[in-house]
């Protein structure tokens, strides 16, 4: 059975929970990632921030009641609101329920979780410590050598 530990991507990128949102966006842009793990001062994983989390936070509160209708928020309002929150800390936007896996989880489990959650990557945790990521490309890599996930 293929395990996460056999395919883990260890060159991981993360941001500190006290980084401001401006730093988070710059880091995501520079490294071309759609989501980034967030760690505390001890390096312990606390969650992830995705582009979608930031976009959701950028929609002003008064527009959220109309969000699921045919109403489309004006880009200028979103950019203006985003500008207002750029100095807030990463932990305020961190999704602590973001799915994770452990090194001993099967790749079948990781693939299923990744696809069902519609995420681009899964943080790999050993206890509370972030030790790597499993991305969609790692799932696809399993098949290159004729291997199966299970």
From TrEMBL:
Limits of the CBS domain: 8-65, 93-149
One Pfam family in the UniProt entry: CBS
SMART domains the UniProt entry points to: CBS
Keywords: CBS domain
Gene3D superfamilies cross-referenced by the UniProt entry: CBS-domain (3.10.580.10)
Xref: InterPro entries: CBS_dom, CBS_dom_sf, Diverse_CBS-Domain
Domain of life, per lineage: Bacteria
Protein name: CBS domain protein
Record organism: Prolixibacter denitrificans
């Amino acid at each position: 059975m293929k395990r996460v530990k056999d395919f883990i991507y260890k060159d991981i990128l993360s941001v500190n929970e006290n980084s401001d949102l401006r730093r988070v966006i710059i880091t995501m842009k520079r490294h071309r990632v759609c989501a980034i793990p967030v760690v505390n001062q001890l390096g312990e994983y606390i969650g992830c921030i995705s582009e979608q989390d930031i976009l959701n936070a950028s929609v002003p509160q008064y527009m959220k009641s109309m969000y699921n209708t045919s109403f489309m928020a004006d880009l200028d309002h979103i950019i203006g609101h985003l500008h207002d929150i750029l100095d807030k800390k990463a932990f305020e936007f961190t999704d602590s329920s973001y799915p994770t896996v452990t090194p001993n989880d099967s790749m079948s489990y990781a693939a299923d979780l990744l696809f069902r959650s519609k995420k681009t990557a899964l943080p790999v945790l050993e206890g509370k410590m972030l030790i790597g990521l499993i991305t969609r490309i790692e799932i696809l890599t399993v098949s290159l050598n004729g291997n199966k996930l299970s």
